[in-house]
Amino acid sequence: MTADGREFPAVNRVTAEHDPTAHAEVMAIRRACRELSTFDLSGAVLYSSCEPCPLCLSASLWARLDAVYFAADRHDAAAGGFDDAQFHEFFAQGAQERDRALPVRHVALATRTEPFEAWAGNDRRTAY
């Protein structure tokens, strides 16, 4: 819901769209951004039937939402067959434990900053 009261309802489309990122919260954020022609939802809040997973929390942060409210918690979701405990646990772990679960490696290429330099030099860029 935006600051002016507009609503952008959405549902989980993961299996329908074969898209693991199509969670209801993400779909609502995408819809609001698309319909409002913005990527900054400052002043808006997200109401969800369930506690957002780390993906949805990250999307909420990137969208600059003011708050997130939810009804069922992650344990209720797990009892209903939506067990995302492994993802919550992943982010709660230290770096070594996370690295064992999903190796993420820095590759220091000589050209690694070129895309950012090009972006910084683009006079038509939109900061976000």
From TrEMBL:
Top-level lineage group: Bacteria
One BP term from GO: purine nucleoside catabolic process
Domain named CMP/dCMP-type deaminase: residues: 1-83
Listed GO MF terms: guanosine deaminase activity
CDD domains: nucleoside_deaminase
PANTHER family assigned: CMP_DCMP-TYPE DEAMINASE DOMAIN-CONTAINING PROTEIN, CYTOSINE DEAMINASE FAMILY MEMBER
Protein name: tRNA-specific adenosine deaminase
Organism of provenance: Kocuria turfanensis
